[in-house]
């Protein structure tokens, strides 16, 4: 596994268990310190973060007013404002510090891999970050439509009071669900490269997989409306089909690289 400079080695290039535990502790400590520092930064820019997160809600207020619906964001409880600010700063800190703690994780794992495996792992990591951010961006774009649809069910004569904590949990869950769902091709390609699934198996499982994607989208989206479900399920299905094509191309290249030996020819072994 990972090694720090000056770490004692035993024959064979391995490290004792205690050295592994010390290095893991050091890397976890660095990750936690980075998250704490980034969380403090989140407190500093709390107003900007709050404006960014509430923009989808503020953008639909005129549409709701046109429907005769009065709605407001409220914070309840004596310590509700502080808890709300702490949660926003903490999540922002985890996101801002992600390059540090992700690298600490890889720095611990990568030395145990072969050179080709290291390249593949770093490549997949580099692809995974843009995919996750793309999913989060898509969720942020459709958030106003989902909120407008759901609050639009408020009956006449009622006012909609939305708790700040409830609203924050809603948008964070939406972003996380969309971001994680965007990692589908990465997970499928990784399983294919490890030899767990083949391109042909993915083709055979396609109908059930598509059904499973729509079921997942219906359960995972916090808005529970069909429009948001389709916004999640359709991109997921497309990404699965793309990963299926990549897996089949990988299988073909892998088959070409395997040397063919005639029946009457001795193998290299």
From TrEMBL:
Name of the molecule in the record: Sec-independent protein translocase protein TatC
Family indicated by similarity: Belongs to the TatC family.
Membrane topology listed for this record: Multi-pass membrane protein
Keywords of this entry: Cell membrane, Membrane, Protein transport, Translocation, Transmembrane, Transmembrane helix, Transport
Organism, scientific name: Aeromicrobium alkaliterrae
Entry-linked Pfam families: TatC (PF00902)
Entry-linked PANTHER family: SEC-INDEPENDENT PROTEIN TRANSLOCASE PROTEIN TATC, SEC-INDEPENDENT PROTEIN TRANSLOCASE PROTEIN TATC, CHLOROPLASTIC-RELATED
Subcellular locations according to the entry: Cell membrane; Membrane
Transmembrane segments: 28-46, 88-109, 121-143, 170-191, 203-221, 227-247
Main localization (coarse): membrane
Role description: Part of the twin-arginine translocation (Tat) system that transports large folded proteins containing a characteristic twin-arginine motif in their signal peptide across membranes. Together with TatB, TatC is part of a receptor directly interacting with Tat signal peptides.
Known partners and oligomeric status: The Tat system comprises two distinct complexes: a TatABC complex, containing multiple copies of TatA, TatB and TatC subunits, and a separate TatA complex, containing only TatA subunits. Substrates initially bind to the TatABC complex, which probably triggers association of the separate TatA complex to form the active translocon.
Gene name of this polypeptide: tatC
UniProt keyword Transmembrane helix, yes or no: yes
């Amino acid at each position: 596994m990972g090694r720090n400079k000056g770490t004692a080695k035993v024959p064979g290039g391995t490290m004792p268990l205690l050295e592994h535990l010390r290095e893991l502790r050091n890397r976890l400590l660095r990750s936690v310190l980075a998250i704490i520092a980034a969380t403090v930064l989140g407190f500093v820019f709390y107003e900007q973060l709050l404006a960014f997160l509430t923009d989808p809600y503020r953008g639909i207020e005129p549409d709701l007013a046109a429907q005769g619906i009065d709605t407001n964001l409220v914070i309840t409880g004596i310590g509700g404002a502080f808890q709300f600010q702490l949660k926003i700063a903490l999540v922002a800190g985890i996101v801002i510090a992600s390059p540090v703690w992700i690298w600490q994780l890889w720095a611990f794992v990568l030395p145990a891999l072969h050179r080709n495996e290291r390249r593949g792992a770093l490549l997949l990591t580099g692809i995974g970050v843009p995919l996750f951010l793309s999913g989060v961006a898509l969720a942020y774009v459709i958030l106003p439509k989902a909120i407008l649809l759901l609050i639009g069910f408020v009956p006449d004569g009622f006012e909609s009071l939305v708790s700040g904590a409830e609203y924050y949990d809603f948008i964070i869950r939406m972003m996380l669900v969309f971001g994680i769902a965007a990692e589908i091709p990465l997970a499928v390609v990784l399983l294919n490269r490890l030899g767990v699934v083949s391109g042909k198996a993915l083709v055979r499982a396609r109908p059930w997989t598509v059904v499973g994607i729509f079921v997942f989208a219906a359960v995972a989206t916090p808005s529970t409306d069909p429009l948001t479900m389709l916004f999640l399920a359709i991109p997921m299905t497309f990404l699965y089909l793309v990963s299926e094509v990549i897996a089949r191309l990988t299988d073909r290249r892998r088959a070409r690289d395997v040397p063919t030996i005639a029946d009457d020819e001795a193998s290299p072994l």
